[in-house]
Amino acid sequence: MITWLTATDHKKIGIMYIITTMVFFVIAGILALMIRAQLATPDNDLIPSHLYNQIFTLHGTAMIFFVIAPFGLGLANYLVPLQIGAPDMAFPRLNATSLWLFVIAGIITFLGLATYGGAAAYGWTNYAPLSEISEGTGVGADFWLIGILLASVSTILTAINITTTTFLLRAPGMTMWRVPIFVWEMIATAILILMAFPSLTAVTLMVLIDRHLGGHFFDPAFGGNPILYQHLFWFFGHPEVYVMVLPYFGIVTEVIATFARKPVFGYVGLVISAFAIAGLSIGVWAHHMFTTGAVSNPFFSAVSFLIAVPTGVKFVNWIGTMWKGSIELSTAMLFAVGFLFNFLLGGITGVMVASPPIDYQVHDSYFVVNHFHYTLGGGSMFAMFAALFFWFPKIFGVKLSERLGKWCFWFMFVGFNITFIPMAFMGLEGMARRVYTYPNVEHLALLNGIASFGGVILAIGVALFFVNILVSAFAHVPVPANPWGGYSLEWATSSPPPEFNFETMPPINSRRPLWDAPSTQGSGP
């Protein structure tokens, strides 16, 4: 245990990152089921309104700050050095610091539940001046702010480490135009973090100063401006969406190429599109603010439409990679294809809300909840499970059951769509987001009942994944170094890898070192 607590090995840190995110994923899932239980019927009084506000705040906070984004960073901690042939991250102690800041941040954020007044109840966006109300909230809201502040610092430190490692520690022969797409996506993610997260750090500190030191940054009664909060928050918030998406684009690319048995189609296009998405995401923050009247709607609408183009390029490349390939529908591949379907629906609704006239009608409605969850739930979450099934043998030395895995996929895919498709229609029928109950009008009772039923099916699928882990751990059937026939360097060493990753480095003469030199497959101790 002490060796894990004091570890600086990137693999152990990556594993602890991933396990921590899965713990928060379970917590967030339980909170989501509580939300759906409250909304299953109209005029329900199962959960009091203030407690409900705490639940949906912590659910959103956990999924965004402690699950989706950090899972990508944790996987990068494990994979990036392996994929570029490095022995470790550039700054191992900084890496450990990032991990423990992240763990402490999550604990502090949820400690608010144990305080008088409960946890933060302002939503994960923590909008000022609502978040500056201190009467009746106790210190739970302060814990939330401190937790997010620490998580922000942790993420920035990790971004520095990933960027430095990739540029300076590549193995001989591993030129930048030979690194796997996952590594490129993590470089784009890291640069985006360095550009956007300081804004989150600053605005979180400003709210703390307003709450306790009389700063009045966002209090209009003292000359402050609450719209300033929105600008600073969404300057972080929309790039954060792509911090939660770009790593998963890399995951899906690696999985599809491996199980289609084809080289990545349009490698250069995938790289350029990643940086195009990162760059454009900096210029679309105010499309969350169309209804404020304080921003240039035509400009931000145009940039929001434009960002769909490089995303479309990626879809063309993924389809091109699969085209005429010898496709193996493993569990990881099923989750990757599920990602394509769900993320496409999320992207289509994203283009819709990028239009100000449509956004005016659906803003703060369940239509936006549908869009957001199809992007980060149906998209990033499904890619997260693709990564877990794909790299689990490399990380732990045993395969997850494919039979149980496919049951897991279908329960999750069906349950997810039953849950979130009705939300688009709820929004069109006028149901506002962030409400703890609703009247029995139109079809809202039926739609919410269907969504809550879907949530149960989705939860069964997630539970099957954890059952799969227990079954596979109990069976403990060892796997070879390259069980999937992968092409990148992490498959050239043992499963799991030794302390410094490689005992002998295979020759790197292309983007597919293991496919172009098949004798190196599975080499290692």
Helix tally?
A: 17
CATH-level-4 superfamily name of the largest domain: Cytochrome c oxidase-like, subunit I domain
Q: Gyration radius, to the nearest Å?
A: 23 Å
CA distance, first residue to last residue: 25 Å
The CATH architecture of the largest domain can be named as Up-down Bundle
Please report which band the strand proportion falls in: under 5%, 5-15%, 15-25%, 25-35%, 35-45% or over 45%.
under 5%
How would you characterize the largest beta sheet?
Answer: none
Please tell me the total number of domains: 3
Q: What would the CATH topology of the largest domain be?
A: Cytochrome C Oxidase, Chain A
**Under the CATH scheme, which class of the largest domain?**
Mainly Alpha
Low-confidence stretches: 521-525
Structural class: mainly alpha
- The percent of residues in helical segments reads 55-70%
> Could you tell me the number of beta strands?
0
| SSE succession | HHHHHHHHHHHHHHHHH
- Mean pLDDT comes to 93
Oligomer: single chain
